[in-house]
Amino acid sequence: MYFTIDRITIDAIEKNSKYKIIHYDNRHFIIDINRNKFTFIFPLLNYFSRQQLIEIDNEELRKINTSYISEEYKEKINTATSWGTGIGLFIVFLTRSVVDYMDFPTNVFLNVFFLLISII
What we know:
The chain has three helices and four strands; from the N terminus they run ββββααα. By secondary structure, the chain is α+β, with helices and mostly antiparallel strands. It has two domains: 9-65, no CATH class; 71-119, no CATH class. A four-stranded antiparallel beta sheet has the order 1-2-3-4. Strand 2 (16-24) and strand 3 (27-32) form a beta hairpin. Pfam families: DUF443. This is DUF443 domain-containing protein.
C-alpha cells in the first residue's frame, strides 16, 4: 500500500542536532537522527535507512520548544572560550620560531596522501 504525504513539516530542535520534530496532520513525532552509529561517518545514510518515529503530545512538544540554556551557563561557556582563545594565541606566539625550522618542501601528492590518511 502506497500513499503520499501532502503536508509535512520538519523542524530542528535548537541546540540539539540529534533529534528532529516532524509535524503531520495535527500530530507530532520525534525522530532520532543519530540512532545508527554509521551516520556519524556517512550522514547520507539517514536517507536510505528506515527511521523510527516516536509520537509526542502537545505538552511534550511545548517542553522541548521552551527548553533553554541559563544565562549563568552561557557566561561560563563564554569565559572558557575566551581563556582558551587567549592560551591558544599565547602558544602560537611562543612556538612561532620553532615552526619556522620545520618548513621543508614536500610534493603535492604526498600532501594529498597525508590529508587522506588523516581523514581516515
